[in-house]
Description:
This protein is an all-alpha fold. It has one domain (7-133): Globin-like. It has helices at residues 7-21, 26-35, 39-44, 50-68, 72-88, 92-109, 115-133.
Amino acid sequence: MVKVVQEDVLERFHDSLERCQSNPEFLGLFYDRLQHYSDDIQKLFESADLERIKRMIQQSLILLMMATEGSIHSHQRLKRLREQHTAIGVQPEHYTTWLETLLSVVEELDPKYNLAIDQAWRTVLGEGINIMTSS
Length: 135
Ligand code: HEM
């Protein structure tokens, strides 16, 4: 395992994630905002149930974080998920929407939110999102 992100950035991300997760609204608010962003995104989630989606978002955050920490397993899992997502109609631009929507929720729920925290989320999640969007 090769660490590719500085320890203080990871710590900033973890602390912010913990503050967000202490709010029971976190995952539901993110999903609600993402789903209502556009008709095509809403269609993708048409047959999904809320509890499954919340687990999926939780799992996504862990996988993306592990990818940044250099986990080969998560790299491979993200590559398989990339194929799976493409097959159900997820487009590259949806990942930008996913990230910006998530950060709008972090900004709202993390009382310590600032630019450095925003950057930490982008850095930590960015590596995995690159894997999901690369062809
Ligand atoms: C940002 C990186 C993302 C990661 C790591 C990720 C991860 C996952 C995972 C782990 C699952 C569950 C797969 C399974 O159990 O078979 C899933 C399902 C799904 N994802 Fe993502 N996802 C990401 C982005 C997105 C985006 C951008 C969209 C669309 C806007 C999306 C839409 C979906 C949908 C529709 C499902 C199926 C939900 C269901 O009906 O169960 N995902 N994703």
